[in-house]
Amino acid sequence: MPRQQPAAPSEPSEIQQAARRTRGEDQDRTLSMLHRLEQVTESAAGRATRWHEDALVALVALDEATADEQRNANEPDSLLSEIVQTHPRLRPRAHGIRSQYSQIRETLRDLLDEMTHTDPDALDIPDVRRRIERLATALRYQRSRESDLIYEAYYETFNDELESGLGDRT
After folding, report:
1. What is the pTM of this model?
2. Residue ranges of the domains in the chain?
3. Distance between CA atoms of residues 41 and 18, nearest Å
4. Each residue of 127-168: pLDDT tens digit?
5. CA distance 33 to 67
6. pLDDT tens for residues 67-111?
7. How many Cα neighbours within 13 Å face the side chain of 149?
8. Which of 1, 51, 83, 93 is most solvent-facing, going by the fewest CB within 10 Å?
9. To 5 degrees, how large is the angle CA 146–CA 134–CA 72?
10. How far is CA 114 from the centre of its chain?
């Protein structure tokens, strides 16, 4: 009797595909705004007022992008929510990523608050640059952790589906 081949893993649902697209769009926008902020803040600060204005505009844009990204990641149909619901072993890591989103957003808000309430001539530009570098590092680290988690969840799902297909041989 010929052996039955295991069933191919199922295709992602429309909701899952939409969640992937949303995540990708959010990440692209955040990364674009981060690059813009880095470009602005790395420029010469000869005219402190102009540097301050440009940096503040770029910070506001990054703040909006990360707010959208965090909000979408917390939606019930997001990839992180799916992982929390379907992969109990990975829940703590998903919660850790959400906590990191909150910490990054808090850092951004603190920086925005300082930039908004400080006279441009009194601003410690080298300190602001260093804080933005740390923020960029935190965003990139958070992004890589999230990508690793999503990859691991899909790999686990794929293996589970393959193993269940192998167990269904007749």
Report:
1. 0.81
2. 15-158
3. 34
4. 999 999 999 999 999 999 999 998 999 888 877 666 666 555
5. 12
6. 999 999 999 989 899 999 999 999 999 999 999 999 999 999 999
7. 25
8. 1
9. 35
10. 24
